[in-house]
UniProtKB/TrEMBL annotation:
<feature type="domain" description="Ketoreductase">
    <location>
        <begin position="7"/>
        <end position="186"/>
    </location>
</feature>
<dbReference type="InterPro" id="IPR036291">
    <property type="entry name" value="NAD(P)-bd_dom_sf"/>
</dbReference>
<dbReference type="InterPro" id="IPR002347">
    <property type="entry name" value="SDR_fam"/>
</dbReference>
<dbReference type="InterPro" id="IPR020904">
    <property type="entry name" value="Sc_DH/Rdtase_CS"/>
</dbReference>
<protein>
    <submittedName>
        <fullName>3-oxoacyl-ACP reductase FabG</fullName>
        <ecNumber>1.1.1.100</ecNumber>
    </submittedName>
</protein>
<dbReference type="Pfam" id="PF13561">
    <property type="entry name" value="adh_short_C2"/>
</dbReference>
<dbReference type="GO" id="GO:0004316">
    <property type="term" value="F:3-oxoacyl-[acyl-carrier-protein] reductase (NADPH) activity"/>
</dbReference>
<comment type="similarity">
    <text>Belongs to the short-chain dehydrogenases/reductases (SDR) family.</text>
</comment>
<dbReference type="InterPro" id="IPR057326">
    <property type="entry name" value="KR_dom"/>
</dbReference>
<dbReference type="GO" id="GO:0030497">
    <property type="term" value="P:fatty acid elongation"/>
</dbReference>
<keyword id="KW-0560">Oxidoreductase</keyword>
Length: 242
């Protein structure tokens, strides 16, 4: 039997990059998947299955996240897995960063993850089962220059995950986080060559990760393979900043 047979998964930011890889992996493992994204069309095109729904969702708006979860309930009858992946970057030095750029990043990453965790866990609590996977970042562990907003948000997700895990464990709901490092994507490969090379020099495995490698860890946390794990943060970094 596939690892997620009969499960229903909701993935925010699931129309591209790591989110799309997670949605595709979950689908392959037997789940029915609801993708939320500001532009859901690429998910329709990439996943193209009767077991998929893709809807527009702004994770900073509680009503949008509620509608996303309601889609899962209406279309497939439950919401067993929630992956809070949606994110943006607005990089700049702290001296040059605008208050708006700080607020946007905090709102999408941290408030968006709080909305997803809070609203999904309410459904899962009634079901007496569920797994929530929050996507943090290595930036939330070590802090990255030029990313005071992003690093703060991603560190906050780790704290949120631990607090939520303590609140929901008694109801059969598990909450865990993943901290990816340098993952190959259109955004990262567009870096100047000297920046890419500098980051590569910090990775003991001497390569960037692939979105599918993050997706496989999300699959582990979403499935019963991790049934006695909650409140944990798993690094997918090739050993960078151990």
């Amino acid at each position: 039997m596939s690892l997620l047979e009969g499960r229903v998964a909701v993935v925010t930011g699931g129309a591209q990059g790591i989110g799309l890889a997670i949605a595709s992996t979950f689908l392959r493992e037997g789940a029915r998947v609801v993708v939320g994204d500001l532009n859901p069309d690429p998910a329709h095109e990439a996943l193209g299955s009767d077991g998929v729904r893709a809807v527009r969702c702004d994770v900073t708006r509680a009503e949008d996240v509620t509608a996303l979860l309601d889609t899962a309930l209406a279309a497939f009858g439950s919401a067993d897995i929630m992956v809070n992946n949606a994110g943006i970057t607005r990089d700049a030095s702290m001296r040059k960063m605008s208050e708006e750029d700080f607020d946007q990043v905090i709102s999408v990453h941290l408030k968006g993850t709080w909305h997803g965790t809070r609203l999904a866990s309410a459904i899962m609590r009634e079901q007496q089962r569920g797994s929530i996977v929050n996507i943090s970042s290595l930036s939330g562990k070590v802090g990255m220059a030029g990313q005071t907003n992003y690093s703060a948000a991603k560190a906050g997700i780790v704290g949120l995950t631990k607090a939520a895990a303590k609140e929901t464990a008694r109801y059969g709901v598990r909450v865990n986080a993943i901290q990816p490092g340098l993952i190959r994507s259109p955004m990262t490969t567009a870096m100047p060559e000297h920046v890419w090379d500098q980051k590569m020099s910090e990775i003991p495995m001497s390569r960037a990760g692939e979105p599918e490698e993050v997706a496989n860890v999300a699959l582990f946390l979403a499935s019963d393979l991790s049934s006695y794990m909650t409140g944990t943060t798993l690094e997918v970094t090739g050993g960078r900043f151990m």
